[in-house]
Amino acid sequence: MAKELWVINASETGELNREFESLTAKAQNITAGTDYQLCAVFIGTRARERSGCSMVWFDKIYCVETKEAEKQGTAGYTKTVQALYEKYKPEIMLFTTDRVSNVVSASLGIRLDAGVIAHANDLRIEDGRLICSIPTYGGQAIGDLSTKTSPQIATAKVTTAVPEDHEMPAMIKIEQFVPDEKCRLRLVKLDRTYDDSVNIENADVIVCAGFGIKSKENWRKIKTLAKRLGGEAACSRSALRIADVPEEQYLIGVSGKTVAPRAYIGFGISGSTQHTCGMKDSKLIINVNNFEENTFFDISDYGYVCDAGEVLDSLLKQTE
Ligand SMILES: Cc1cc2nc3c(=O)[nH]c(=O)nc-3n(C[C@H](O)[C@H](O)[C@H](O)COP(=O)(O)OP(=O)(O)OC[C@H]3O[C@@H](n4cnc5c(N)ncnc54)[C@H](O)[C@@H]3O)c2cc1C
What we know:
Layout: E1 3-9, H1 18-31, E2 36-43, H2 47-54, E3 60-65, H3 67-71, H4 74-88, E4 92-95, H5 99-112, E5 116-120, E6 122-126, E7 129-136, E8 141-145, E9 152-156, E10 170-175, E11 205-209, H6 216-228, E12 232-235, H7 237-243, H8 247-250, E13 263-267, H9 273-276, E14 284-289, E15 302-305, H10 308-318
Helix pairs in contact: 4-5, 6-10
The site of flavin-adenine dinucleotide (FAD) has 30 residues, from helix 7, helix 9 and strand 14.
């Protein structure tokens, strides 16, 4: 039997987002020329719809169209993936880095007594084993990690890329899969504390705040500027504290969103690997930083050595 690498879609919204597509493209890339079959796993009430849209990317699709897993939240998804694993025994299981996937992958690791590598920003296969690149020492170095256990499980956020179309796969449909065990957890209600209208992933222009903006007042200026440019405001991890906004919506980087806008304008950002891996595919990168040797300038199209607040004031005047 061919070895299988699974890309698992357990997203809360049931959408095929850019992160899943990038992970699929990377999985296509690393399995090419190996004896791995590339498979997708879709779980939830809209599983069939999602598998239909992405059929051309995979060799095989496991489609678990069930309301049960969704009702039980992350516990339901975990049990479903575990039951699928026990039946089909894939070698490698890859997840994106959204909230549900983080919990499901970690819980699965515990249940299967397998190591889980979290937040890889690159992947490759060597001698049949999955090797994950992980930024370390505050993003100053990149380490290679692999697990010795089986299955090999990882969550990854990789560079934005578009999957290539394959020939149509053999569709394996598993109807109304209901986990055996009684679950003590049940998702009663999903109460979002944030405004769904903010969507940095689809923005054409992103004005991003770093810790160097220093004040809430400058954050307000960043939001105004973003609005005037027809875009969205976003944050580095350190700026979240200043802006006081939810990371689920505003954070760019390895543990936040992956974006590729037509223009990214950063203010007071040092450009750690954890941040840049989420925005380095932006078409035009502009950065304002008061430190001349800031390494973020190295990947910028335009760099301005200035005080963030002063440049914001000037741009707001010009866009009045
Ligand atoms: C596991 C893990 C996951 C992480 N995930 C993410 C992630 O998803 N996204 C993310 O962003 N980070 C993430 N981080 C944190 C990351 O390592 C950095 O700490 C963070 O990105 C730094 O944010 P910053 O550049 O805004 O702040 P700093 O590193 O503090 O940089 C501030 C910058 O502002 C400049 N500056 C200071 N004053 C001014 C001024 N007046 N005008 C202009 N410039 C000024 C400084 O020169 C400096 O370059 C993660 C870290 C870990 C360990």
